[in-house]
Write a structure and sequence with these properties.
The complex is a heterodimer of chains A (317) and B (341). Chain A is built from 11 helices and no strands. Chain A has 317 residues and is mainly alpha-helical. The N terminus and C terminus of chain A are likely disordered. In chain B, a hairpin with a 2-residue loop joins strand 9 and strand 10. The N terminus of chain B is likely disordered. The two termini of chain B are 33 Å apart. In chain B, helix 4 crosses helix 5, helix 4 runs parallel beside helix 7 and helix 7 runs parallel beside helix 8. Chain B has a domain of 162 residues: Rossmann fold (3-Layer(aba) Sandwich), CATH 3.40.50. The longest helix of chain B is centred in the middle third of the chain and has 18 residues. Chain B has 341 residues and is α/β, with parallel strands linked by helices. Chain B has an 8-stranded mixed sheet with strand order 6-7-8-3-9-10-12-11, with helices on both faces. Classes of the chains: A mainly alpha (317), B alpha/beta (341). At the A-B interface, helix 7 and helix 8 of A face helix 2, strand 6, helix 4, helix 7 and helix 8 of B. Chain B: It is found in: Cell membrane.
């Protein structure tokens, strides 16, 4: 058999095994830093409160509004608020609350929205119409107003906040997923799968989801910021996280009135929000590249060469 | 309606038993914005196991539409309005979706022309080739992958175990076509449709792919329906041929007989336009004109506008497919005349 004749000319491009993801991550400095930051935030949220004990709620009116300094031990490192509570301890405490609202809300809306969206887009017709009209109805309410109404009626618990934020964000994923699925369902490899009898859910799971996923993940990380900010808006209005619990958004809201006298109370949690969301966005961009088999090789190059389509990069491909 | 005498396309000795695939009076309508047109008009043919039938015709003559309606992949604008497609004794057109899915793969399968588009770009090929086994045999991912590697070896992919982890874009065109064929024959189908499987490939690779199809056909005792516009491929690899024009079958029969002695002016025109037959220094004979718009097919013979033999009768009366030999038929009022020319 002359099989060797039409063997691909780029045999070097067919590695014995694709490079491990952590090696790829190590190659991309920015993404690696983002991953480390996110890891630290998660770690802080998980074990920080155990180490700090009641430092986040301990009041000391003598130490009210102390600026950040090295003079008062670790709890005084980032200053104190009006009641003399350690801002550092409150930031650590708030990390847990913030993430326990934002992560479940994003995950829930991502999963539900994508599943319904891909189902609607894949089948088309009446199912698509119903799903899209329901999404339009949800979108036509200002999501914050929806949250306000629901949280006034029900008690503002963490579970309710998660539920209402997730519900309000489902249409975002639903629309994206539907658009992707509607385009992908007419691709030949989906037809090919149907020619040997694949049913609709396995087709969606194996052939549509892997291609739509990077887009959906990018939307999710952007939405992560939105959900954190929505939660802080709700907290600011007094129907979000209830004191003595504390979240980053609530800290910003509470610190607002001291902005001119004690900037650290509002600014530091703001920085925490920004750092977390920016890291999530960078990591999402990296994940999008790393999950695309045709683009993955770019990550094995030094950052300076990436994106350039020079002869040398083509050869290393 | 009686089955037409000449539509049985197999040679006499092969005509024993049920054909693996029997298409009878299949008609497909396209509902377009400017009205309904008939894309496939009363097409009949059958194939037995171990034989290759070629569906031959120029672009837009309805050969791919016929294939898509057999495997049930028609777009919503197309509708099967009549006829039957019998595979394994059952009419697949009347089956429910669930029953049809059970046939998809073990009974009927298809090889597409564009292999890169027919493979999922984000899945390693090993996993894709294993998919039929997971669906129909309920194998685990690991077992399915072993089967996939075995398939890759059968279709002649070097180092199948290492290559199973590669993605479609890392294969050459010929290799991708082999992968697609591997996926199509995974469940040992009775009937394999090949929709222009070699059109996108260069000639050497084309020969290898056709040889592979031929080997697989012999080894697995499949019936192959080869859809093509390439006369050379038909002459070399098919046993029987169905020549289509503007959605109609104009001539059928064993390839050898039809090509040696065409009984339809269209077949004759096609054969005359092959460069090898042309005389040096003279313009290449071609079938003048172009096929009719499907929305504007004349009431009489579909080929009348381009036919050198066209007469008054052709404008009024559509010729029926009538036997011109023991196993062949042509749809021309004057096929007798052609025989004597």
């Amino acid at each position: 058999m002359t099989a060797t004749l039409d063997r691909p000319d780029d045999t070097a491009a067919a590695p014995k095994r694709p490079p491990r993801w952590w090696l790829l991550l190590g190659r991309d400095k920015l993404a690696a830093v983002a991953a480390v930051v996110l890891g630290l935030v998660l770690l802080t949220a998980l074990i920080g409160p155990l180490l700090l004990g009641d430092a986040a709620t301990r009041q000391d009116l003598n130490a009210s509004l102390r600026p950040p300094s090295f003079d008062h031990g670790i709890t005084g490192l980032l200053g104190t608020d009006i009641l003399g509570r350690s801002v550092l301890a409150r930031l650590v405490e708030a990390a847990g609350t913030t993430l326990s609202v934002a992560i479940p809300a994003v995950l829930f809306s991502l999963v539900a929205g994508s599943a319904i969206g891909m189902w609607a887009g894949y089948h088309g017709g009446r199912r698509e119409n119903i799903a899209m009209r329901v999404a339009d109805v949800i979108l036509s309410f200002p999501s914050l107003l929806l949250a306000v109404v629901v949280l006034y009626v029900f008690t503002p618990s963490v579970a309710n906040i998660v539920f209402i934020l997730a519900l309000a964000r489902i249409p975002i994923y639903l629309r994206t997923a539907r658009a992707e699925a509607a385009e992908l369902k007419s691709r030949l490899f989906v037809d090919a799968a149907r020619t040997f009898g694949t049913t609709s859910w396995p087709t969606i799971y194996r052939h549509i989801l892997p291609i739509a996923m990077p887009t959906l993940l990018t939307v999710a990380t952007l939405d992560f910021c939105f959900v954190m900010l929505s939660e802080s808006s709700l907290s600011f209005l007094g129907i979000g996280i209830q004191p003595p619990d504390v979240s980053w958004g609530l800290m910003v809201a509470q610190g607002r009135q001291f902005l001119q006298t004690a900037w650290w109370i509002a600014v530091l949690p703001g920085v925490a929000i920004v750092l977390t969301t920016v890291s999530a966005t960078i990591l999402a961009a990296w994940v999008r590249l790393a999950t695309d088999p045709a683009q993955r090789w770019r990550l094995t190059l030094p950052t300076s060469k990436r994106g350039k389509r020079s002869v040398t990069t083509e050869v290393t491909a | 309606m009686n089955p037409l005498p000449g539509t049985a396309t197999a040679e006499p000795e092969a005509r024993t038993g049920e054909p693996a695939l029997a298409v009878e009076h299949l008609s497909v309508d396209l509902h377009t914005a400017s009205g309904t047109v008939r894309a496939v008009d009363d097409v009949s043919f059958s194939v037995h196991k171990g034989r290759t039938l070629a569906l031959l015709g120029e672009s837009g003559c309805g050969k791919s539409m016929t294939a898509l309606s057999i495997v049930g992949l028609l777009e919503p604008v197309a509708e099967v309005v009549g006829g039957s497609v019998k595979a394994g004794g059952t009419d697949v057109l009347t089956l429910g979706r669930r029953a049809r899915r059970r046939l998809a793969g073990p009974v009927l399968s298809i090889v597409f022309q564009d292999a890169l588009a027919a493979l999922n770009p984000v899945q390693p090929v090993g996993r894709q080739l294993g998919e039929p086994f997971r669906i129909h045999h309920g194998l685990s991912r690991r077992e399915a992958k072993e089967k996939a590697i075995e398939l890759m070896r059968i279709v002649g992919i070097p180092e199948p175990r290492a290559r199973a982890r590669s993605y479609p874009h890392q294969f050459s065109g010929g290799m991708r076509q082999r992968l697609l064929i591997a996926m199509a024959v995974a469940l040992a189908p009775d009937v394999l449709l090949a929709d222009e499987p070699t059109t996108a490939l260069d000639v050497t690779v084309q020969a290898q792919i056709m040889q592979l199809l031929r080997d697989l056909r012999a080894e697995r005792d499949m019936a192959v329906v080869l859809i093509t516009h390439d006369l050379a491929v038909v002459a070399e690899h098919a046993d029987d041929v169905v020549i289509m024009y503007a959605g109609n079958v104009v001539e059928t029969g064993p390839v050898r007989e039809v090509f040696a002695d065409p009984r339809h002016p269209y077949t004759r025109g096609l054969l005359d336009s092959v460069p090898e037959r042309a005389e040096k220094g003279k313009p290449l004979p071609a079938v003048g004109g172009s096929p009719p718009e499907l929305s504007n097919v004349p009431p009489g013979c579909v080929f009348q506008a381009r036919c050198p033999l066209a007469r008054e009768r052709c404008a009024d009366e559509r010729p029926r497919l009538t036997a011109t030999g023991p196993a062949r038929a042509a749809a021309c009022h004057f096929s007798e005349e052609l025989a004597s020319v």
